[in-house]
Design a protein that fits this description.
This protein is mainly alpha-helical and 122 residues long. It has 2 domains: 11-75, Winged helix-like DNA-binding domain superfamily/Winged helix DNA-binding domain (Arc Repressor Mutant, subunit A); 79-118. The chain is 59% helix and 7% strand. It contains 5 helices and 2 strands; from the N terminus they run αααββαα. It has helices spanning 11-24, 37-44, 48-60, 78-104, 109-118; strands at residues 64-67, 71-74. α2 (37-44) packs across α3. The chain is elongated and about 60 Å long. The two termini are 25 Å apart.
């Protein structure tokens, strides 16, 4: 668990996104147990109900599931599901905006590709 929660989003949303990020980075793997709401609330010094709300977002998204009496676990296929959702969001929130702005200021498709290619040393 990372120790910093920002202030630009609700804490429970930050908790759910932090867990998703840890799944994407393979810190939390499918079928592994995630930190409990008590652990999250102590670590981040937040109300347990807030931590539970963040966990419940992921249950509703079919990313986590409960093993009765044991805790919450990462569901099989969770990583692929998160990647697909985030890819769609990335396209809608960033790619479309970049293309729209490029058209507005007269950047050609080729120029845009060059700009992207020159910065994609990943």
């Amino acid at each position: 668990m990372q120790g910093n929660l920002g202030e630009d989003k609700s804490i429970y949303i930050q908790i759910s996104e932090m867990i998703e990020d840890e799944i994407l980075r393979d810190i939390l793997r499918e079928e592994e147990q995630v930190p409990s709401t008590t652990e999250l609330s102590k670590f981040y010094k937040i109300n347990p109900a807030t931590a539970a709300k963040g966990i419940n977002i992921l249950v509703d998204k079919d990313i986590l599931y409960k093993k009765r009496g044991i805790g919450m676990f990462v569901k099989d296929g969770a990583k692929n599901s998160i990647q697909e959702t985030r890819r769609n969001s990335f396209y809608e929130n960033y790619v479309k905006a970049i293309i729209s702005e490029a058209k507005l200021i007269g950047i050609s498709k080729e120029e845009l590709k060059k700009m992207i290619d020159s910065n994609l040393d990943m």
